[in-house]
Every structure is written in C-alpha cells, then in structure tokens.
Amino acid sequence: MAHVVVVGADRGIAAGLVRVYKARGDDVTAVCLHDGADWHAEGVQVIADTDVTSDSAVQRMAQQLAGVPVDILLCVAGVGATDRWGRFDFDAMLAHYNLNALGPLRVVNALSDNLAEGGKIGIVTSRMGSISDNQSGHMYSYRMSKAAANMLGVNLHHQFRSRGVYVMLLHPGTVATDMTRGAKSWDSFTRPEESAAGLARQMDALGADTPPEFRHQDGTLLPW
Length: 224
Ligand SMILES: NC(=O)c1ccc[n+]([C@@H]2O[C@H](COP(=O)([O-])OP(=O)(O)OC[C@H]3O[C@@H](n4cnc5c(N)ncnc54)[C@H](OP(=O)(O)O)[C@@H]3O)[C@@H](O)[C@H]2O)c1
Prior knowledge:
Elements: E1 3-7, H1 12-23, E2 27-31, H2 37-40, E3 45-47, H3 55-64, E4 70-75, H4 90-100, H5 102-111, E5 115-124, H6 140-160, E6 166-171, H7 192-205, E7 214-216
Parallel strand pairs: 1-2, 1-4, 2-3, 4-5, 5-6, 6-7
This protein binds NADP nicotinamide-adenine-dinucleotide phosphate.
NADP nicotinamide-adenine-dinucleotide phosphate is lined by residues 8, 10-14, 33-34, 51-53, 76-79, 99, 124, 126, 171-172, 174-175, 177-180.
C-alpha cells in the first residue's frame, strides 16, 4: 500500500486521482484548496485550506505531513486562462504563473524530506505547454506557465534522481472538468476518472530507468 498525496484535490482530475488510488487500496491524502469535507465520507485523509500560491499555506500543509513518508506526490492544482492580444492583464498573468508553475515547485520543495528512495513525483502540466507541439498560438499565459512547469519537472528529475526519487510530467488529455466546461463537444471529452486511471498507469511505469518524460495519460510520449 502506497501513501499517495494529491494536491488540488477539491474536484476535477485530481478528485479522479484520489478515487483511483483509493480504489486500489492505497492510503490517500487529499490536499484541498477548501475544506475537502466530502472526502471524509470516502475515508480519505484531508489537508484543507492549501492554496499552492501561498508560502504559509503550503508550509502548514507540510507541517501536517511532517515525518510521514510519501510514496507518490501528484501536483495537479492549476487553472486555465484566456487572454487577448493587446489586452493582457499582466498582474493576472503573474498570479497564473505563481499557481501553474511555482505551485508545484512550492509543494515539492516543502515535501522534499517526505520523499524516500523509490518515491515518485507526478506533475500535471498540459500539452499546451509543449513548445514544439504549439501549432495554433494564443493562450499566452496558460502555455507559458505550463512550459515553465515542464522545465520544473526536468529540473526536479535531476535534483532527485541521486536520491532514487523519480519524476514525470503528465498531460491528462482533454478532460470534461469545470476548466473546460462550455467548450464545444465537452460531453465527448475524456471523463476525469478515465484520465486519472491513465495518469496512474503512467506513474506505475515510472522508475529508475525512466528519462525525463512528458506523457499523455494514454501513454503517448509528448514532445517538449
Ligand atoms: N481539463 C483538461 O482538459 C486539462 C487539460 C490539460 C491540463 N489540465 C491540467 O489539469 C489540472 C487539473 O485541471 P482540471 O481540469 O481538473 O481543472 P478543475 O476541475 O478546474 O480543477 C482544478 C483544481 O485546482 C484547484 N485549485 C485552483 N487554484 C488553486 C490553488 N491556488 N491552490 C490549490 N488548488 C487550487 C481547484 O480548486 P477549486 O475547486 O476550489 O477552484 C480545483 O480543485 C490543471 O493543472 C490543468 O491545467 C487539464
């Protein structure tokens, strides 16, 4: 039984991950932005009020896990953003970067001591952060923050590999969550639980021999 910590677990893909690992019999901690009250009924441990853009909130979260080994750490919290050429809100873009790019770094930094040999870190970024896959432009803030998150993951790979802790960058697919609600054909998007099951399979395959990789939940290797 692994201890799995899922960050950003109030809803969406992260909530799917909590359920996938719980169903496998793992010990799951849901780190939530809000109170996470619904998780108690499902037997999931909750660490509430964890805004990953806040140093003090992330430190409080880490204090609650002090001395507790973490086998799998999944950084999922993130938001989408639309922006328009000529009408950028740079303060909003900085806040967005703080969440999508610095959020996972803040969390991994705070839980570094909890990750023992054999531990794994998964960061959910997005294909939109791929530089060579960018064939349509736009979405400046989202693309730039997710590209930075991909860079973070490769850096973490180098940071942790001598400790026997492995890192993978993950794309969840196009998933029917609140983030994408309202998009054309939303009903046909991948369900959060299906995406989560695929993400868990990629984490299962992650090990000592895995180079820095960016994987779709369906297993496809994605370009940086
Ligand atoms: N859906 C897709 O098609 C898709 C595609 C590619 C990548 N992704 C990535 O997958 C991840 C999850 O997305 P999703 O589709 O599941 O979105 P979602 O349903 O909107 O869920 C996002 C989660 O992040 C939490 N969150 C937002 N700001 C936070 C903060 N400052 N600190 C901690 N948690 C925070 C949200 O909490 P609240 O509920 O309170 O807001 C929510 O639980 C994101 O990183 C996203 O970029 C999604």
